[in-house]
């Protein structure tokens, strides 16, 4: 059994790690969290695969040296590119949890859906394979979202709205839901919902990734546990969460070091339907939608 509190390292280039970190903090606040951001190297999506592998492996080894019991990679690009070599380097002693877009639950609804992702992910063999495995022929549309992750990273409301408008304009009207295929996107769900037709559902994997990390550690959910510490690492150096990250409720809550409440988290998970008065499930589908 892992000692208490367990220490979990989350590795990403930027703020895409916030939703998963927020869910971990909400579900199991006594986990000690290490947030590894890479302000000098971001965005990783424009880098070569070899560069990303080296960066993630180096950060993973540093995280273990600093006491990590598990590593979570809340980044689609890094998960696709570097999780296999990272697992080869550190498992089975320490579990590694990757991020996979929520294509499987979207496909299971039987309804048409879109996958919003970065241009690199949209054109990747990885995403094509996911859609072939979990969506029926013609059920899914891949929608590239140029500039959206960068706008979220900059916490630029106007740029976010512009990028979301472009993506919404590319989304076929037949789509009943959208899979958020970049871990940055849950931070701006209100903007996304506002740009989509009423009743459109959102699928996000950040809660599922947090739950998988707890399972790999053999820990049950315990939201009432006493909060442990949160450490921030910027390019390997310990520091503080950038002020711009604190413009998002999750970032502000993590920076305070206390609990992360449901109100701090994106309203994209079906478990929110019991507490969010402005959401409801689509008949026959495990989604949330704004009505």
Automatic annotation (TrEMBL):
Keywords: Isomerase. Residues 259-291 are annotated as: Disordered. One of its GO terms (molecular function) is glutamate racemase activity. GO terms for biological process: peptidoglycan biosynthetic process. InterPro entries: Asp/Glu/hydantoin_racemase, Asp/Glu_race, Asp/Glu_racemase_AS_1, Asp/Glu_racemase_AS_2. It comes from the Bacteria. This is Glutamate racemase.
């Amino acid at each position: 059994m892992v000692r208490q509190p367990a220490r979990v390292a989350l590795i990403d280039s930027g703020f895409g790690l916030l939703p998963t970190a927020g869910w971990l903090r909400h579900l199991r606040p006594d986990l000690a969290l290490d947030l590894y951001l890479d302000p000098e190297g971001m965005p990783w999506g424009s880098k070569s695969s070899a560069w990303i592998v080296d960066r993630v492996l180096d950060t993973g080894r540093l995280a273990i040296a600093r006491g990590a019991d598990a590593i979570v990679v809340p980044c689609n690009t890094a998960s696709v590119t570097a999780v296999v070599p990272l697992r080869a380097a550190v498992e089975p002693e320490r579990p590694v949890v990757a991020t996979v877009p929520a294509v499987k639950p979207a496909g299971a609804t039987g309804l048409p859906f879109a996958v919003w992702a970065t241009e690199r992910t949209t054109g990747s063999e990885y995403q094509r394979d996911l859609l072939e495995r979990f969506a029926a022929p013609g059920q899914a549309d891949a929608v590239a979202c140029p500039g959206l992750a960068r706008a979220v990273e900059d916490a630029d409301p106007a740029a976010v709205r512009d990028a979301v408008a472009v993506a919404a304009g590319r989304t076929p009207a037949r789509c009943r839901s959208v899979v958020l295929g970049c871990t940055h996107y849950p931070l701006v769900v209100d903007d996304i919902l506002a740009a989509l037709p009423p009743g459109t559902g959102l699928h996000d994997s950040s809660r599922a990734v947090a739950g998988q990390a707890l399972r790999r550690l053999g820990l049950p959910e315990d939201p009432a546990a006493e909060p442990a510490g949160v450490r921030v690492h910027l390019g390997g150096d310990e520091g503080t969460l950038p002020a711009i990250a604190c413009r998002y409720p999750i970032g502000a809550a993590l920076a305070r070091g206390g609990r992360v409440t449901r109100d701090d988290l994106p309203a994209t998970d079906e478990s929110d339907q019991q507490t969010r008065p402005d959401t409801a499930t689509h008949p026959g589908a495990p989604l949330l939608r704004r009505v």
